[in-house]
């Protein structure tokens, strides 16, 4: 049994109560959501909060709803809920692709989208997905609510714009007609963190050309989308030659580190290979959704 | 108790496939396990029990400058803090290892691996014990470490074991087997010689339950009761007596339910000794249970062999000879568990299943700044490394000769009529009939069809590989004349008592860690004396309750204790004959046996069942001279030879050409472990072992960085396979009984772990043939496979 350093524990009863508790217990207090990132770090004594504020009773943050042009995802929505939602599968197949390869069912039953984004692990999958989908993070603190783009929210490995006395409340994902998205990850074993992964989202115009595209990479030292690919893809009809060029640009844009998961050149190669794959799938999914609409 | 029907027999199995004693019976231990009622070390709670925790070294090699325990001792819940110098005063700072070396219980002079035991805290609860570790101040003077075994013998390499008198280098032993001159001569005149460096990296058994102990020393009568995660309770008791000075009759070692061993629980770890010292010092029971990182970083690893292999053959594919030089990384203390005579275990079975003209191997063991141990993880004493070497070399030769690897194996097998077969390194293989086993596996796989499919796929640029491994194991250590551990001969005792009502208890010296002993051994007795297995209780794991024996590892339980149990049952059956004769007022030689009953020859209606005979034995019948009034017996079985199970494995993989990711699509395993007792238990052992093998082939490795930091200290870093990485196993069997084992059984616990890694790696290498890959070392992770595709294979260490 791995034993964390001593800490105190309290259950929050509402978002306001959680914010008040964060305020009261100060710098050494942390909220715990699914606990699948925080508790392992505490057991290894890498994290040593004095107070744990449990937000698992905040059912008000556990929802998924299509609200006009956006899907609103409550911060306490579990991985499993995202994986099993028909709306998510239809509108954002990239989320299903990613959820299927995040950890294992035990972790997915507890882990939350809020915890994943706030943890901001460099190998974490949902941050890439949210970047690619151009999601907006809703953050609440003593001074009220803030809406942050992913670029503003996500500051780098293990770092977000959420202050100690704030909570991530919701993630808003814009719904785009005629779009398709995909995610692919290479892992050494099911449930392992990514060696590298890539996600893409593509929107096709009525004439079949690409009107919007985003590509993101996971675990290769890139905290934002591969913006270089937009210039070569937007306005073009999907074509293998373009995907190849996009893959090349992705492999140049990333900045991976060598570790037990692989050397740098392999990870760059994966950025290339996986970018091509997710663009291919995204375009064909987008084409299918365009034809769905016309039917 | 439900007894499942036997499966339809396998036509390839001949006449011997009738399983023993109710065959595919459900395991007697399962009702408690499936209901969560197993009783493990950590479930043990004794009145007044305290908890221990170990402070471990953060660096791999450092002189210990000072330890300050003042603050830890001031913790309100801490009762004792024990350091190396405290142990030194008691003469307990060093303990003997299973390989005649010594190992530090707590560091006194120098840290020799990261994670080594530095101090032991005893506190009222495990939380306080853990917290107090942070209050101990230790100053280290960091030294350059020896991490790469290849550099351990370099002149000027730091000397790790300066505690040993006269030590000026990191050399442990040189050992050889076979005839060098003969082998070199065969090589010199061979048409074809291929060479390959083959590395079997360091892996870890990683049992689900980590190691732990509860020590309870009674200061009044001087008795020590030690509950331990041990695979060898009797050997541990004797060693504890030798080390601690507590007389052996005052020591009771209990090994309760064990959550997996795989060799990890053979050795005596400092934690066990520290729990005992903690109990002696505080006068209270002390529990110590390590956490996952401690288990991975400090307890016995497996493998770590760098092998230079060479194989010689004629150009038409007759294999002539094998030779190899091995560099063995033993870590900081030589704590390998194996028979004394064999410092490289049974590695010299590396001649495999082939009829060779000559063979020679040398093994050099070296110290490095890594955790000690070795020969753990279902390896049959290094047969794993041996089988991996020969089965890779044969595949490399097949490639060189442009010959199908199945065909090459079939041409070179030892023939049925050559058994018992004396190989070139000193083994006598008891029995074998390899070709039908190989052919059955090929038939189950649809081998020719697979090759056709592979050809088509290659044309489309898809990477599919087919890998074969044919292994011969040597298990059941072993004959006393050849084999001992620290002077204890490797024979096993067994005792059988039939109670007056005809129910029985059999007491065995070996201990189960998931092998199903409570069922298998009851079935063996049931077969011999005709009492149903449900009426036979199997007692094991408690030295006060069971006869002496060396424990469960190296697949030895069935070959050694299984034989002991069969023989003790026969002894009881013979004794029953005399008692039955007295009861029937006839002569013993006039009685005939049918399962469960002695009857008068020619008059089957007149007889006595075992239950009647048991009652008679304990009753008032006048017994013949020399027969005492019970139906009990005991034996100690000294095996005349080892047993040699074998098997043919075929693995089919698909490799993603863009990512290097390997998917094991199919795995066909045909095992021959001689007479089969409970086929369901055998299949369970095979399924587990195959999963182990896939894990080692694809993902498992304990790596170290240049400073000697262990990079495999958690399950985030040390990957073990899950159900998702393995296919539905396709198992088959043949039956070639052991001629010298009372029931012909050979042992099967490690076969699949031994046999499967080469099948998987051979399949991966086969898939990569279009890239000119002839060999790649484990683990075949996506990155390493991709590198191999780029022509950049590299050893993992
Ligand atoms: C074995 C294993 C494998 C895994 N594999 C993967 C993988 O492959 N890919 C992947 O992406 N993830 C993986 N994870 C991580 C998993 O997805 C976690 O669930 C996730 O990272 C964190 O979610 P959580 O709800 O458990 O967060 P917690 O652990 O509860 O919290 C994480 C951090 O976020 C903070 N936090 C949580 N919620 C909020 C909020 N609403 N507002 C502000 N701060 C908040 C906490 O204070 C803490 O600092 C794995 C985890 C495990 C244990």
UniProtKB/TrEMBL annotation, chain A:
Keywords of the record, alphabetical order, are:
FAD, Flavoprotein, Oxidoreductase
Highest taxon above the source species? Bacteria
| SMART domains assigned | CO_deh_flav_C
Instruction: Drop me one GO molecular function for this one.
Output: oxidoreductase activity
Residue span, FAD-binding PCMH-type domain: 2-178
- List, alphabetically, the Pfam families matched: CO_deh_flav_C, FAD_binding_5
Protein name, entry field: Xanthine dehydrogenase family protein subunit M
**Could you tell me which species this protein originates from?**
Cryobacterium ruanii
TrEMBL record, chain B:
Question: What are the Aldehyde oxidase/xanthine dehydrogenase a/b hammerhead domain coordinates in residue numbering?
Answer: 35-144
Q: Which domain of life is it from?
A: Bacteria
Disordered: where is this region?
Answer: 1-29
Q: Which InterPro entries match?
A: Ald_Oxase/Xan_DH_a/b, Ald_Oxase/Xan_DH_a/b_sf, Ald_Oxase/xanthine_DH-like, AldOxase/xan_DH_MoCoBD1, AldOxase/xan_DH_MoCoBD2, AldOxase/xan_DH_Mopterin-bd_sf, CO_Mo_DH_lsu
An annotated Gene Ontology molecular function: copper ion binding
Keywords in alphabetical order:
Molybdenum, Oxidoreductase
Does Heme count among this protein's keywords? no
Which PANTHER family does its entry note?
Answer: ALDEHYDE OXIDASE 1-RELATED, XANTHINE DEHYDROGENASE
**What protein am I looking at?**
Carbon-monoxide dehydrogenase large subunit
Native species:
Cryobacterium ruanii
């Amino acid at each position: 049994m791995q034993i964390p350093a001593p800490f105190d524990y309290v259950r929050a009863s509402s978002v306001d109560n959680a914010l008040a508790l964060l305020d009261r217990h100060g710098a050494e207090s942390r909220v715990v959501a699914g606990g699948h990132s925080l508790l392992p770090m505490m057991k290894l004594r890498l994290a040593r909060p004095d107070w744990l504020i449990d937000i698992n009773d905040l059912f008000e943050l556990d929802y998924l709803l299509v609200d006009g042009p956006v899907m609103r995802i409550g911060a306490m929505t579990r991985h499993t809920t995202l994986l099993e939602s028909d709306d998510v599968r239809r509108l954002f197949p990239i989320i299903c692709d990613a959820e299927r390869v995040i950890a294992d069912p035990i972790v997915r039953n507890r882990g939350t989208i809020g915890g994943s984004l706030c943890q901001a692990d460099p190998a974490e999958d949902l941050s890439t997905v949210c970047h690619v989908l151009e999601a907006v993070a809703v953050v609440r603190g003593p001074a009220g609510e803030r809406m942050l783009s992913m670029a503003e929210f996500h500051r780098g490995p293990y770092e977000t714009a959420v202050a100690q006395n704030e909570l991530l409340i919701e993630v808003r994902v814009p719904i785009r007609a005629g779009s398709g998205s995909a995610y692919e990850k290479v892992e050494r074993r099911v449930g392992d963190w990514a060696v590298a992964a890539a996600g893409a989202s593509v929107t096709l115009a009525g004439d079949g050309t690409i009107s919007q595209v985003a590509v993101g990479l996971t675990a290769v030292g890139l905290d934002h989308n591969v913006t270089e690919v937009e210039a070569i893809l937007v306005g073009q009809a999907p074509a293998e030659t373009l995907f190849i060029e996009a893959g090349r640009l992705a492999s140049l844009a990333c900045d991976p580190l060598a570790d037990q998961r692989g050397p740098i050149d392999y990870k760059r190669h994966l950025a290339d290979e996986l970018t091509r794959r997710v663009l291919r799938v995204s375009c064909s999914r987008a084409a299918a959704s365009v034809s769905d609409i016309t039917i | 108790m439900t007894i499942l029907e036997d499966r339809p027999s396998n036509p390839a199995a001949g006449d011997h496939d009738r399983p023993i004693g109710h065959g595919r019976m459900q395991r007697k231990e399962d009702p408690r396990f499936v209901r969560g009622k197993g009783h493990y070390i950590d479930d043990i709670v004794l009145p007044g029990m305290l908890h221990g925790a170990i402070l471990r070294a953060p660096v791999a090699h450092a002189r210990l400058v000072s330890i300050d325990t003042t603050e830890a001792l001031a913790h309100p819940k801490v009762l004792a803090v024990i350091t190396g110098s405290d142990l030194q005063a008691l003469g307990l700072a060093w303990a003997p290892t299973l390989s005649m070396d010594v190992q530090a219980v707590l560091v006194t002079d120098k840290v020799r691996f990261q994670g080594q035991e530095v101090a032991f805290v005893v506190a009222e609860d495990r939380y306080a014990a853990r917290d107090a570790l942070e209050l101990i101040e230790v100053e280290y003077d960091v030294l350059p470490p020896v991490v790469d075994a290849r550099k351990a013998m370099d002149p000027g390499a730091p000397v790790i074991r300066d505690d040993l008198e006269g030590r000026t280098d990191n050399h442990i032993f040189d050992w050889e087997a076979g005839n060098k001159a003969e082998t070199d001569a065969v090589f010199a005149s061979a048409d074809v010689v291929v060479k390959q460096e083959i590395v079997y990296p360091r892996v870890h058994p990683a049992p689900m339950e980590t190691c732990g102990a509860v020590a309870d020393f009674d200061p009044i009568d001087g008795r020590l009761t030690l509950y331990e995660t041990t695979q060898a309770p009797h050997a541990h008791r004797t060693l504890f007596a030798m080390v601690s000075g507590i007389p052996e009759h005052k020591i009771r070692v209990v090994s309760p339910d064990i959550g997996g061993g795989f060799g990890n629980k053979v050795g005596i770890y400092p934690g066990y000794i520290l729990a005992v010292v903690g109990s002696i010092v505080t006068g209270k029971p002390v529990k110590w249970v390590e956490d996952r990182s401690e288990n991975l970083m400090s307890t016995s690893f497996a493998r770590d062999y760098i092998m230079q292999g060479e194989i010689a053959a004629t150009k038409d594919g007759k294999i002539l000879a094998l030779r190899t030089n091995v560099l063995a990384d033993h870590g900081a203390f030589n704590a390998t568990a194996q028979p004394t005579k064999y410092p490289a275990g049974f590695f010299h079975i590396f001649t495999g299943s082939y009829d060779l003209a000559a063979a020679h191997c040398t093994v050099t063991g070296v110290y490095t700044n890594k955790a000690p141990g070795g020969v753990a993880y279902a390896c049959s004493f290094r047969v794993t490394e041996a089988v991996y070497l020969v089965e890779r070399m044969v595949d490399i030769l097949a490639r060189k000769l442009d010959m199908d690897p199945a065909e090459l194996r079939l041409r070179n097998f030892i023939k049925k009529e050559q058994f018992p077969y004396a190989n070139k390194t000193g083994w006598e293989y008891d029995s074998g009939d390899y070709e039908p086993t190989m052919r059955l596996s090929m038939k189950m796989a649809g081998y020719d069809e697979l090759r056709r499919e592979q050809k088509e796929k290659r044309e489309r640029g898809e990477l599919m590989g087919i890998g074969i491994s044919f292994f011969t194991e040597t298990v059941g250590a072993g004959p006393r004349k050849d084999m001992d551990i620290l002077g204890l001969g490797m024979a096993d005792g067994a005792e059988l008592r039939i109670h007056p009502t005809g129910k029985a208890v059999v007491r065995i010296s070996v201990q189960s860690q998931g092998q199903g002993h409570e069922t298998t051994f009851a079935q063996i007795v049931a077969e011999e004396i005709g009492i149903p297995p449900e009426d036979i209780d199997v007692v094991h794991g408690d030295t006060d309750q069971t006869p002496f024996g060396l424990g469960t590892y190296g697949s030895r339980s069935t070959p050694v204790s299984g034989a002991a149990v069969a023989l003790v049952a026969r002894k009881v059956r013979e004794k029953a004959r005399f008692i039955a004769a007295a009861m029937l007022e006839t002569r013993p030689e006039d009685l005939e046996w049918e399962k469960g009953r002695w009857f008068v020859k020619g008059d089957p209606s007149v007889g006595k069942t075992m239950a009647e005979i048991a009652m008679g034995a304990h009753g008032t019948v006048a017994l013949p001279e020399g027969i005492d009034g019970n139906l009990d017996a005991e034996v100690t079985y000294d095996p005349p030879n080892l047993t040699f199970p074998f098997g043919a494995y075929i693995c089919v993989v698909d490799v993603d050409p863009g990512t290097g990711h390997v998917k094991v699509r199919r795995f066909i395993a045909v095992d021959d472990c001689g007479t089969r007792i409970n086929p369901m238990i055998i299949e369970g052992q095979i399924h587990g072992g195959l999963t182990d093998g896939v894990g080692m082939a694809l993902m498992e490795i304990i790596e170290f960085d240049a400073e000697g930091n262990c990079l495999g200290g958690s399950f985030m870093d040390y990957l073990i396979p899950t159900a998702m990485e393995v296919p539905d196993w396709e198992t088959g069997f043949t039956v070639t009984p052991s001629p010298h084992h009372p029931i012909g059984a050979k042992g099967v616990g490690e076969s699949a772990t031994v046999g499967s890694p080469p099948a998987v790696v051979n399949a991966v290498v086969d898939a990569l043939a279009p890239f000119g890959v002839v060999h790649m070392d484990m683990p075949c992770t996506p990155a390493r496979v991709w590198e191999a595709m780029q022509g950049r294979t590299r050893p993992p260490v």
